């Protein structure tokens, strides 16, 4: 269960039950392995550094926010040219592989190994370029601009996905995040919500760093008797 999500919002109106999702966690993991093995998805190793910054609250108490800074050294390396024979073989194989929609990568036709599940108004896809294993997306079936806030239906569905998630280890949690337009990091114009499983970086930290701050905000203030 993602405690940060539960703390940040009240339980929304349920548009789709968790039963409709099936065992989505297992589907994502299974499809991720297929996509990696087939070369339809790519995983890049990353390094995480945690830095903590303090911020005063009402001038009385200090709280610490653990920021996770993730770097991907592999992206600094330029890809090497493939031998001509290998490149020729790859060109031949391309004709037998389903082509991704070049105008909108989140619209049909989907690459089969990246497609996890189709729902009524949404589609669950794997992220093609993964910094974390099993990084997946919830995208709208019809085109909706990423600059618009996610709809209540989308938020409700993400909530159900998080609540029904089966973690790979007991201390892991699923984090959902939404980049609302290019200024917040979105590189695709088609509306999509991203979901990744996080694990604690050390024994004293939470899997989802913002939980520390939220729990501090919501905890009773003994000095004020609340």
Describe the structure in brief.
One of its GO terms (molecular function) is ATP:ADP adenylyltransferase activity. By secondary structure, the protein is of the alpha+beta class.
Give structural attributes.
disordered N terminus; HIT family, subunit A; 25% helix; Ap4A phosphorylase 1/2 N-terminal domain-containing protein; 226 residues; ATP:ADP adenylyltransferase activity; 6 helices; Ap4A_phos1/2-like; single chain; Ap4A_phos1/2; alpha+beta; disordered C terminus
Describe this structure as you would to a colleague.
The strands form 3 sheets. Strands 4-5-7-9-8 form a 5-stranded antiparallel sheet, covered by helices on one side. A two-stranded parallel sheet has the order 1-6. A two-stranded antiparallel sheet has the order 2-3. It has a domain at 15-51 and 111-215: 2-Layer Sandwich (HIT family, subunit A), CATH 3.30.428.70. It has 6 helices and 9 strands; from the N terminus they run H-H-H-E-E-E-H-E-E-E-E-H-E-E-H. The chain has helices spanning 3-8, 18-21, 24-38, 84-94, 152-163, 210-218; strands at 42-43, 47-57, 61-71, 115-118, 122-126, 129-130, 136-140, 173-177, 192-198. The protein has 226 residues and is an alpha+beta fold. GO terms for molecular function: ATP binding; ATP:ADP adenylyltransferase activity. Residues 78-101 are annotated as: Disordered. One of its GO terms (biological process) is nucleotide metabolic process.
Task: Give the SSE map.
Blueprint: H1 3-8, H2 18-21, H3 24-38, E1 42-43, E2 47-57, E3 61-71, H4 84-94, E4 115-118, E5 122-126, E6 129-130, E7 136-140, H5 152-163, E8 173-177, E9 192-198, H6 210-218
Parallel strand pairs: 1-6
Antiparallel strand pairs: 2-3, 4-5, 5-7, 7-9, 8-9
């Amino acid at each position: 269960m993602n405690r940060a999500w539960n703390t940040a919002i009240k339980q929304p109106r349920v548009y789709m039950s968790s039963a409709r999702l099936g065992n989505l966690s297992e589907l994502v993991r299974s499809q991720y392995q297929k996509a990696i093995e087939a070369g339809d998805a790519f995983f890049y190793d990353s390094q995480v550094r945690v830095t903590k910054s303090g911020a005063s609250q009402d001038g009385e108490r200090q709280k610490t926010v653990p920021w996770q800074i993730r770097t991907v050294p592999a992206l600094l390396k330029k890809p090497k040219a493939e031998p001509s024979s290998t490149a020729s073989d790859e060109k031949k194989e391309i004709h037998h592989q389903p082509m991704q929609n070049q105008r909108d990568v989140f619209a049909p036709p989907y690459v089969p190994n990246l497609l996890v599940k189709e729902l009524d108004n949404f589609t669950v896809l794997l992220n093609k370029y993964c910094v974390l294993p099993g990084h997946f997306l919830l995208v709208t079936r019809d085109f909706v601009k990423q600059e618009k806030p996610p709809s209540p239906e989308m938020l409700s569905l993400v909530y159900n996905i998080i609540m029904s998630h089966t973690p790979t280890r007991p201390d892991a949690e699923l984090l959902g995040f939404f980049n609302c337009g290019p200024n917040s990091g979105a590189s695709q114009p088609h509306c999509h919500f991203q979901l990744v499983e996080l694990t604690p970086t050390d024994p004293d930290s939470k899997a989802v760093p913002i939980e520390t701050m939220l729990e501090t905000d919501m905890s009773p203030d003994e000095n004020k008797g609340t």
